[in-house]
Amino acid sequence: MKLRRALTAVAATAVLPLALAACSSGGSDHPSSDASAGHKGSSDSAGGPDAGLLNGTRLKALLLPVGELPKGYKADPHATRDSGTAFAPASSKAPLDLAGACPKLEASAWIQTAGLESAAFAQGDFANASQEEFNQEVDSFRGKDAQTVMLRLGQVLRHCAHFTDKSNGTTAAVTIKTTTVPKVGDQTLKAVLTAPEWEGGTTLVASRVGNVVITTFYNVQSNDKGAAGLDLTKKIVAQAQKAK
């Protein structure tokens, strides 16, 4: 049996350039909400590139509480964080790194494979005694970046449909089955990661609501391979739609 804990050693493709760069147990390289760099702003700011964006404080309100998860899950306080009221400075898009993307899909911060920095974020991680985990992240993007993120994530998932994972002293032949989910947000992709060497699987979901992208990571040892991750993501989507 292989427990697919998120890869803490994976280097971030895109990190918000705020002051504190702590790593969560789920592998996210986002800073905590205590970081003070960047500029202040809110979705109510008039004009400018940040107009209409949800800041980290508002994104945090979209996250699911532990009561929405199956019994036995507990929140990881060290991996629950947001960017507060500060927006990260705008930066250029990094090239899409397909060559190094596939192993990063086994980490909770898999949105970073898109290579675009968000303006603000919030995240929360949960795990149970079996080290199964559900991780959620909500990012807001400027301009058309949210659409670009979804396009790039689709490219990454297609590129990584079959790859060999070598981690934790094991080798696994990973298969990713990606489907488009209609009528959930503006765009939604679901990807299921499995391997003969694993027990269970991982379900990844990415959903866009306007300029917000929601990504979830549900890693389980059961035969459903984290299928409930889609329903949990739909709840976050519904919250994001109300916040528009």
Would you write up a description of this structure?
The structure is a single chain. This protein is of the alpha+beta class and 244 residues long. The chain is 15% helix and 27% strand. It has 3 helices and 11 strands, in the order βαβββββαβββββα. The strands form 2 sheets. Strands 2, 3, 5, 6, 7, 8, 9, 10 and 11 form a 9-stranded antiparallel sheet that branches. The chain has a two-stranded antiparallel ribbon with strand order 1-4. β8 and β9 form a beta hairpin. The chain is globular and about 50 Å long. The protein starts with 38 loop residues before the first strand and ends with a helix. 50% of the residues are buried.
Key words describing this protein structure:
single chain, 244 residues, alpha+beta, nine-stranded antiparallel sheet, two-stranded antiparallel ribbon, 3 helices, globular, Sensor domain-containing protein, signal
